[in-house]
């Protein structure tokens, strides 16, 4: 018996373009002391080969056009993993397999560890579990005994999108060369060159930290409802969306307000050989407040760490927005009573109207370590080969 253990040392979350590192250990547990081997070769366990590669599988709705399903499709061509996988999804990304070893022999109690490193392609789609399209990433570790079927150990990972503008800007900065006019000083520490990924994260931090308050006057056909202020338009995963409502400028009563964080998933389908858009709206966080008689109130809406930031592929695009629902009324009996009114009573029936409004926002990734700390998952996976 051989036990295969795969461990992700830096968590299961990575950015597109980042290097994945996974340690893969093959061990032969010692046999019970009362077991007597029939020959010298019985004490060894052997494996013919082992390889590892990263796969991104795409699962789509049955209505999506077959032409779109074939975009950027890869297969397990010319590898032994092709005959072993039974997944129904299409292979969107498949890195080149890396051979870990050939003809491994382990004596009882012996252990061998191999380090698998692979860069996630920068143009790969992110991990996403939508209603129309799903992208799923796994490190597939395959191994085989002689004249035995291939055994697979799948290690799920999550890939976050990184805006191409940030990455291209970072690469341009790294490629800039400046001549040193001063003589070299052997006592000064040599400054290490920054990686494009680190510079891209710096650009991301600058964009999402920049405060740029925007004010919106919300009105309907009867008059002004409220004045809304959003302090910044760009956010990272795990942040709070903060805004304020000002009802002092209103000319009609706003009884209650609801704000939802929604994503808009859009893809292309074929209906009678004609392309059309298919859209799904998914709601995550929601803020609800009864605000009748308020002059001011605030909005605090958390962004979950498990959601996928905005991205776009040739198959699907994902956008984020704030969806508002205002319940208003023009009933005169809702006038705010004065301090001297001691017998004021609310009307038993109030005619209301509901108005909706959607405000687009920009949602970006965050550093993988923040997601790992907030979303706990198993980073050690095992497989037993008998």
Automatic annotation (TrEMBL):
Q: Give the highest taxon in the source lineage.
A: Eukaryota
Where is the organism placed in the taxonomic lineage, from the top? Eukaryota, Metazoa, Ecdysozoa, Arthropoda, Hexapoda
UniProt-recorded name of the protein: RAB6A-GEF complex partner protein 2
């Amino acid at each position: 018996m051989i036990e295969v253990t795969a461990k992700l040392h830096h968590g299961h979350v990575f950015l597109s373009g980042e290097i994945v590192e996974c340690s893969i250990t093959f061990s032969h547990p010692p046999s019970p002391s009362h077991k007597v081997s029939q020959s010298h070769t019985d004490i060894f366990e052997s494996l013919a080969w082992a390889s590892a590669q990263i796969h991104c599988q795409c699962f789509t709705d049955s209505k999506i056009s077959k032409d779109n399903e074939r975009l950027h499709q890869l297969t397990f061509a010319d590898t032994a993993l092709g005959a072993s996988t039974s997944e129904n999804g299409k292979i969107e990304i498949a890195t080149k397999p890396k051979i870990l070893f050939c003809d491994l022999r382990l004596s009882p109690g012996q252990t061998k560890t191999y380090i698998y490193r692979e860069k996630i392609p920068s143009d790969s789609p992110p991990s996403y579990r939508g209603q129309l399209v799903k992208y799923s990433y796994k490190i597939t570790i395959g191994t085989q005994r002689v004249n035995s079927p291939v055994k697979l150990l799948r290690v799920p990972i999550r890939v976050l999108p990184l805006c191409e503008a940030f990455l291209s800007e970072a690469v341009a900065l790294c490629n800039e060369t400046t001549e040193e006019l001063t003589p070299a000083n052997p006592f000064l520490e040599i400054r290490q060159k920054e990686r494009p990924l680190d510079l891209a994260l710096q650009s991301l931090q600058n964009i999402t930290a920049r405060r740029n308050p925007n004010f919106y006057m919300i009105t309907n056909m009867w008059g002004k409802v409220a004045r809304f202020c959003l302090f910044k338009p760009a956010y990272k995963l795990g942040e709070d969306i903060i805004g304020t409502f000002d009802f002092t400028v209103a000319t009609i009563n706003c009884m209650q307000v609801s704000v939802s964080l929604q994503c808009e998933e859009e893809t292309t389908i074929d209906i009678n050989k004609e392309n059309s858009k298919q859209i799904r709206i998914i709601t995550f966080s929601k803020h609800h407040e009864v605000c009748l008689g308020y002059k001011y109130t605030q909005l605090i809406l958390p962004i979950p760490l498990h959601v996928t930031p905005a991205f776009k592929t040739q198959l699907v695009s994902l956008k984020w927005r704030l969806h508002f629902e205002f319940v208003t009324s023009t009933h005169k009996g809702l006038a705010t009573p004065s301090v001297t009114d001691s017998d004021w009573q609310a009307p038993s029936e109030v005619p209301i109207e509901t108005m909706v409004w959607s405000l687009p926002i920009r949602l970006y990734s965050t550093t993988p370590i923040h997601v790992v700390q907030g979303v706990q998952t198993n980073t050690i996976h095992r497989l037993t080969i008998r």
